[in-house]
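Tutorial, part two.
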Amino acid sequence: MNIDELKNIWDNDEGQNTPEVSLEQRKSLNLPLEKIRRNMRWEFWSTVILLAFVLVAIWGIQMPFRFRLYLEILVAAMTVVTFFFYAKFFKLYKEISNPELETLTSLKDLLTQFNLNKQYYLSFYISFVPFLVGEMIIVIESIPKSRDLPDLALAIYFVGSILAGLLFLWLLGKFWFQYYYGKYIDKVEKLVEELQA
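Running the prediction step on this input gives:
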């Protein structure tokens, strides 16, 4: 066999395995994709507003210089991490804003992007663990009564607060993703299953 015969076999095989997405299926796909895009826009702008509010609160409330400095550095680091992940989410947003979903292969690629971004979302919440620990250290060290606590009580309070915060972050992240994105991704997955059947 020469290279031209292999190319022909490859082209014929590829065409047989990629069923076309009908116009009706594309219309049913547009609703979940539009909801995902809308939720991504809402989440981005609400995060920008929240960060602005936090900075105004830090600068507007009277507090010791060291406490303000630590909070400003912590919020600046959180902002850098947040916008790193938003840059990743923006790639997905651009991709689903201009979808050319005419074949099963293109839908599978879209699902792969959704699954990849689901992992980014999980990584985003996990990346806040050090910030949570840093916030707890700042808060505990700035409370004068914490210096009077016995070592064991301080350790229990600190570790308990961290564990409660981690559990809260995990539950929030899981709920948030499912509520704003997961149910719409499930609709895309069902469409892919229909096309594969």
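Helices lie at 3-16, 23-60, 65-97, 104-126, 129-142, 151-196. In part three we will examine how such features are distributed along the chain.
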